[in-house]
Amino acid sequence: MKAVLFKALPAWQSTGQSNRHPPLARQAKSFHVSWLSLGFAFLAFITGTGTALAVSRFLGPLVTAAAIAGVIVAILTIIRPDLGLLAFIFATYTRLSDVLIEYHGAPSIAKPLVALLIAAILVRWALYQEQPQGWVRPTVLMGVYGLVIFTSLLYASDFWAAREALSDFIKDAIITVIIVVLMQNIATLRGAVWMLLVAGILMGSISVYQFLTSDWNNAFWGFGQAPVLNLVGTTEGGRVGGPIGDPNFFAQIMLVLIPLAVMRAGAEKSVPLRLLALWAFAVCALTVMFSYSRGAFVALLIMLVAMAVFRPPRPIEVALILVMGAGLLRLIPATYTERLLSVADLFSGQNDVRSEVSFRGRASELLVGIQMFADHPVLGVGVGNYPTLYQEYSRRIGYDPRTEAREPHNLFLEVAAENGMAGILIFSAILWSVFSCMHKSRLAFLKAGLHPEADLVASLIIAMIGYLSAAFFIHGAYPRFFYLLIGIALSLPQIAKNTLARVNPGSSYA
């Protein structure tokens, strides 16, 4: 498996501006490791080995293994920045750094890895004139949105909450631009999709095992957090939360992987990779169910419709899906079905919105968000300030007896309440740009007869539809996943341009 994945990954790409110093976008036929690069790698190895020995002595074997892995990633990132990017994508989607910090007392690996990726970009720009491509669009979009968020500091009731939100956004914006700069060809994109699926297999397999064995007290090294929460009515039980700990947010990021797994299962020529994709599909789908997230279920239905529109399944695929679906249905607990039926009862009018604790709380949170936007329509109440002001507004409505700070549980309403029309406009511009990039790239691949590449982009479109559909029911508490997906989407025009130039030098990407 490892050999197959590494074989599919390209050397550091170039743009075709010079034969002597190949730039980022064109697939290089060979990669020459200079003595200077070897020097950097040797220095990284010596430094990392010394660090690993020190860590082994004072912090134990687990952190030592992480340190050794870090050394390997550092060396590969200098030689092949695209491999460093794939490692970062895996670490981000599994929240590896947070898990190591919270459960094992290790230092952050996310910050050094981001710094290493930036250093790799700058070093290769300086030494090989490999000028970054495609960074203007994401930089402008993130910069303007960042300016709107920065403005919150001038009027937010809770200045420190606004400052923390701004700091988090800056980090996410930098990550978005890095992904666009480093993801320059179709092979790296395919590798990124596989890294996401491998992350899904890790998290999903743990969660499925945890649910089937009811091993709720075992956090599985931090990747199997499962709180006991309300299931339906007054019944409580375990809900899988993965490395996030919140079932609804965990379901959202696992939901995204389902169309990627389905498309890879149908597109890969290698039987082991197809089986691996089916494994990813099974555990991701079950994880969404075992999270008991009603919003994720609605988003899943929307994604299934989108999948049928983009790529109508063949009869054999329908049969396979039905067989796998029948097997998965046998694992669905009765309480999950009852929880879904409570939504149907609500829409049919059989239950009042105030009859269930979760519905009553959600209704209050949505109404508070609407009222905040009505009171502050231009700039909102300030980024990160919805929880601060929740109780003040909630007392007016009278739905929610809880006395703690709450969140809006709707990403779009959160943007409206905290950033007003200014935030809505730029956020909408970001989403429009994301879907425009994906749509145009898919059409360019179809026009060139590159159907596997077009299907790969289609799976990303469906994944984004799923994420945003789920976002109607939860807010942006873990935005890094969102900005990672945005980075991948905004990299597609450059990928399409480079791919078409390589396959058909006379073609162009409009």
Instruction: State the shape.
Output: globular
Say what oligomer this is: single chain
**Total strands:** 2
Major sheet, described briefly?
2 strands, antiparallel
Instruction: Output the number of helix runs.
Output: 21
> What is the strand arrangement across the widest sheet?
1-2
Mean pLDDT: 83
Question: How many domains in all?
Answer: 3
Unreliable segments of 5+ consecutive residues:
1-35
Strand coverage percent: under 5%
Structural class of the secondary structure composition?
Answer: mainly alpha
> Which value, in Å, is the CA radius of gyration?
23 Å
- Helix fraction, binned, reads over 70%
What is the first-to-last residue Cα distance?
37 Å
Give the SSE order as H and E letters. HHHHHHHHHEEHHHHHHHHHHHH
How would you explain this protein's 3D organization?
The radius of gyration is 23 Å and the shape is globular. Helix content is 70%, strand content 2%. It has 3 domains: 2-131, no CATH class; 134-182 and 353-510, no CATH class; 193-351, no CATH class. Helix 6 packs across helix 8 (159-182), helix 10 packs antiparallel against helix 12 and helix 16 (357-375) packs across helix 17 (386-397). It contains 21 helices and 2 strands. The relative contact order is 0.11. By secondary structure, the protein is mainly alpha-helical.
List the helices and strands and how they pair.
Blueprint: H1 2-8, H2 35-59, H3 61-79, H4 81-93, H5 96-104, H6 110-128, H7 136-151, H8 159-182, H9 186-213, E1 228-232, E2 235-238, H10 247-255, H11 257-267, H12 271-290, H13 294-310, H14 315-329, H15 334-348, H16 357-375, H17 386-397, H18 411-447, H19 451-470, H20 479-490, H21 492-503
Antiparallel strand pairs: 1-2
